[in-house]
Amino acid sequence: EPEVTQTPSHQVTQMGQEVILRCVPISNHLYFYWYRQILGQKVEFLVSFYNNEISEKSEIFDDQFSVERPDGSNFTLKIRSTKLEDSAMYFCATGGSPRRNSPLHFGNGTRLTVT
Amino acid sequence: KNEVEQSPQNLTAQEGEFITINCSYSVGISALHWLQQHPGGGIVSLFMLSSGKKKHGRLIATINIQEKHSSLHITASHPRDSAVYICAVRLNTGNQFYFGTGTSLTVIP
């Protein structure tokens, strides 16, 4: 069964550094999402991306964050000037058209630790 | 604000028991998603519902749109069912999902 692939699985970075989290979506999916889960808390929506542009974003997704699909396959989340509170598990999810109630397919996540 | 409430938060069951996990929401939705999160953190889709009932193996999910409530049932529970079960709803007004805090299920042999 096709999978959503995320790299790296773990990332440790120092406060103030930039990180890029990568996701390879399932090939025929057109809708891409980033979610995060702070340890012990619920999963939170960050951003959705369709047709090479952001379609929705949450209050969390401020100017520190950006997404892009640089080469038609990878879908990336960039976090500039990381803060301690950015430490979390970041999940990429992809899916078909929401109008068809296509389920989301999640990657295994990237655990980001900011020290 | 908390659009999605799950109960119970924690559940311990004996192997073979019938399990019910509940999800209530307070807003109009276009779809509801039941997900399973394994101890390692990975999230797997179980069901996507907009009405009625779905069944897959020992898992059954139901939704009552009028009452804004969904249930996930596990028949003949097994220790490998131990995981966190998460309900997520997509509002009528967008494509993003709002997640509940999850129900942590432990099935004891």
Distance between the termini of chain A: 37 Å
Helix-strand category of chain A? mainly beta
Sketch the topology of chain A as an H/E string, one letter per element: EEEEEEEEEEE
Main sheet properties of chain B: 6 strands, mixed
Biggest β-sheet description of chain A: 7 strands, mixed
- Helical percentage of chain B: under 10%
Say what oligomer this is.
heterodimer
Number of strands of chain B: 11
List how many beta strands of chain A DSSP finds: 11
- The separation of the N and C termini of chain B measures 38 Å
Mean pLDDT over the full residue set of chain A: 93
Work out the largest interface and the residue count of each chain.
Answer: A-B, 26 and 25 residues
Mean pLDDT of chain B: 93
Q: Tell me the strand percentage band of chain B.
A: over 45%
The succession of helices and strands of chain B, N to C, reads EEEEEEEEEEE
Which class do the helix and strand fractions of chain B yield?
Answer: mainly beta
Q: Can you count the helices of chain A?
A: 0
- Which outline of chain A best applies? globular
Q: Which residues of chain B form runs of ≥5 with pLDDT under 50?
A: none
Outline the fold blueprint.
The complex is a heterodimer of chains A (115) and B (109).
Chain A: E1 5-7, E2 10-13, E3 19-24, E4 31-37, E5 44-50, E6 53-57, E7 65-68, E8 75-79, E9 88-95, E10 105-106, E11 110-114
Parallel strand pairs in A: 2-11
Antiparallel strand pairs in A: 1-3, 3-8, 4-5, 4-9, 5-6, 7-8, 9-10, 9-11
Chain B: E1 4-7, E2 10-14, E3 19-25, E4 29-37, E5 43-49, E6 52-56, E7 59-64, E8 69-74, E9 83-91, E10 97-99, E11 103-108
Parallel strand pairs in B: 2-11
Antiparallel strand pairs in B: 1-3, 3-8, 4-5, 4-9, 6-7, 7-8, 9-10, 9-11
